[in-house]
Fold this protein.
Amino acid sequence: MKKMRRSARLVDMTQHLLAHPHTLIPLTMFAEQYGAAKSSISEDLSIIKEAFESQGVGALRTVAGAAGGVKYIPQMKTEQALHFMRELIGHLENPDRLLPGGYLYMSDILGHPATMARIGKLFATAFAEKNVEVVMTVETKGIPLAYATAAYLNVPVVIVRRDNKVTEGSVVSINYVSGSSKRIQTMSLARRALAEQSRVLIVDDFMKAGGTIRGMIDLLQEFRATVVGCGVLVETADVTDRLVDEYVSLAKLRDVDVKGKQIEIELGSYFHNREE
C-alpha cells in the first residue's frame, strides 16, 4: 500500500486498536501494512500508549518475543467512573421514574447507546483480568448491557431465553425460583449457543434477591462452564437472603418512598474503597 505520513499512520493504528480490544496484534502486521520498520512502529505505539493512559482510554500491553505484539485493554479511570455514575444516579433518582408497585423505570437508559457504551466499558474494566470468553444475560432488558460489555471485551454474547425457540434447536432448560416473586420459572439455553467449559461473565440490569442470576449460574453447570464474574447495573439494598454471594454492582437502590415520591440510590459495590 501507499506509504502513509506518520500522522495518518498514528490515526489508523489507533483506530485499529480501538476496534480490536483484548486482541494481540503482532508488530509485524503493522510494519507490513504501513511499510515501516518495527522500530518506527514501536515508537508510534509508545505515543498511542501515552495518549490512551493520559486520556483514560485504556492501556496498551506489549508482549515480547517472536509471537508477541501489542494488546489494547479498555479501561475507565476511577474518577471518570465516579463522575459518570453520580450523573447517572442523579437521573435515576428522578421521581418521575417511579412506577406502580415501587418499580423503577430504566428502559430509556438501557436504550441509550452512549450510556450503554460507558456502562459496558465500566464492566469491561471491572472484569478485564478474568479472561472472559462469553458474556451472558437473560432476555430482555439485560441484552443492551451484555452487548455493550462484550464489545469492549471482544467476546460473543449468549442470551438465555424464558421460553424455547424452535429456531434454536435443542435446548437445556432448568427451573429456578424468582427471587422477588418466589415463583418457579423456567429458563433455557440452546446447546449450540455455548461451548462446554467456557469462561462466562453474567451481566444483568437489576438484581433484587438474585434468583435470575442464580438460575443462570445453575444453568451454566449443565455446560460445565466457569462463571468468572457477575455484573449488575442496579442492586436493591433491602434484601436479607441474597441468592448470589459474589457480584459487582454499579449502583444500589437504597430506598423507595412511593407515597412521598422519593428515590434514594448510592454507588454500588464496584466503588467500595474507590471514592475520592
The chain has a mean pLDDT of 92.
